[in-house]
Specification:
The complex is a heterodimer of chains A (112) and B (116). Chain A has 112 residues and is mainly beta. Chain A has no helices and eleven strands. Chain A is globular. Chain A starts with a strand and ends with a strand. Chain B is mainly β. Helix content of chain B is 0%, strand content 54%. Chain B contains no helices and eleven strands. In chain B, strands 2, 4, 5, 6, 9, 10 and 11 form a seven-stranded mixed beta sheet that branches. In chain B, strand 5 and strand 6 form a beta hairpin. The chains are: A mainly beta (112), B mainly beta (116).
């Protein structure tokens, strides 16, 4: 049972436009969410996180939105740059449980 | 059906002991990984194997040794456990080599290791 789902395996966006990556979850106990970015042959690197007490967190070009009622979060990248081309993973954890549960990733390709 | 499984899910042990964490994937993937999740919930890659061949070996103490008896299994053996080894360890698999651009990964449920 996949508790964290990234239903789009790939996404292509024109350079300079907005990239929107989506993530859905089923476990209502999740209260902390993270996005990771992964380049080939490297480990994932932390990008941005959000706790359930917020519905938005912004860091430079990256903004994460959380819709608790829909059990949905999204990562917005604007403007998109070629260096943003990577695989993006969504992850979640529940209060009192430090283990993360991961989505399977979305490959983002930025077209120059 | 569990795609990527790890055993045990929880492991509590004393300092100085040797322990193993097992990982199995039934997805037919060629590449498997071990990650360590630190106290801030940040994920760090430790090892990656492709068809039983080591392709990523990050800077980890040599007390950590991955073992891949076949491409469906990647076990992590840890010698002389230390307090700082306490963490959550994740296994993952992907259908392509780690250096290919498309690198969707399927993560296991994690193993919480506590060293006392």
């Amino acid at each position: 049972d996949q508790q964290v789902k990234q239903n789009s395996p790939s996404l292509s966006v024109q350079e300079g436009r907005i990239s929107i990556l989506n993530c859905d979850y089923t476990n209502s106990m999740f209260d902390y969410f993270l996005w990771y970015k992964k380049y080939p042959a490297e480990g994932p690197t932390f990008l941005i996180s959000i706790s359930s007490i917020k519905d938005k967190n912004e860091d430079g070009r990256f903004t994460v939105f959380l819709n608790k009622s829909a059990k949905h979060l999204s990562l917005h990248i604007v403007p998109s740059q070629p260096g943003d081309s990577a695989v993006y993973f969504c992850a979640a954890s529940a209060f009192g449980n430090e283990k993360l549960t991961f989505g399977t990733g979305t490959r983002l390709t930025i077209i120059p | 059906d569990t795609a990527v499984s790890q055993t045990p899910k929880y492991l509590v042990t004393q300092m100085g002991n040797d322990k193993s964490i097992k990982c199995e994937q039934n997805l037919g993937h060629d590449t498997m990984y071990w990650y360590k999740q630190d106290s801030k919930k940040f994920l760090k890659i430790m090892f990656s194997y492709n068809n039983k061949e080591l392709i990523i070996n990050e800077t980890v103490p040599n007390r950590f040794s991955p073992k891949s008896p076949d491409k469906a299994h990647l076990n992590l053996h840890i010698n002389s456990l230390e307090l700082g080894d306490s963490a959550v360890y994740f296994c993952a698999s992907s259908p392509l080599r780690g250096d290919q651009f498309t690198d969707t990964q399927y993560f296991g449920p994690g193993t919480r290791l506590t060293v006392l």
